[in-house]
Each structure stands twice: as structure tokens, then as C-alpha cells.
Write a structure and sequence with these properties.
Layout: H1 6-12, H2 16-32, H3 38-52, H4 62-76
Helix pairs in contact: 2-4, 3-4
Length: 78
């Protein structure tokens, strides 16, 4: 987030929302690498349930699903 990278961010992200989304994805991936923390594992399981449990409606969060898939890939690689 240093000022010297402003130009790069302008080329990579079309909006502040894109930047925030990318940042949250990176944060989630880093957190996913900490597989030995019981609380984090419980949170991961809750996110999985929220994203992949089918309810009566067909509403689901594709961003959440993508993040969870990435988390699974990184945690299973260890």
C-alpha cells in the first residue's frame, strides 16, 4: 500500500472495490495457511457451511466459495 506502488495499483485495479476484494482474498489465503489453530479451523468450517449449504433459495456467495476453494488448496498442500 506504499505510495510508490500507486501507479501499479491503478493499472491492476479498475476500482477501489477491486483492490479491497483482492486484499481480502490475500488476507484469507494467508490466514488459511495457519492450519494448527483450532479457532481458525472452526471459522473455516463455518464459512464452508455458509458457502456450500444449499438453502431453499438459490442465493450463494461466489466470492466466498472461491476464497474457500483457495484456502482448501493451500491447507491441503501442507
Amino acid at each position: 500500500m506504499e505510495e510508490r506502488f500507486d501507479l501499479l495499483r491503478r493499472y491492476l485495479f479498475q476500482s477501489q472495490t477491486d483492490l479491497e476484494r483482492f486484499r481480502q482474498l490475500i488476507v484469507n489465503v494467508v490466514l488459511a495457511t495457519d492450519i494448527f489453530d483450532k479457532e481458525l479451523n472452526d471459522q473455516r468450517k463455518a464459512r464452508w457451511e455458509k458457502a456450500f449449504t444449499v438453502t431453499g433459495e438459490r442465493s450463494f456467495n461466489m466470492d466466498l466459495r472461491a476464497t474457500i476453494i483457495i484456502e482448501r488448496k493451500f491447507t491441503s498442500a501442507k
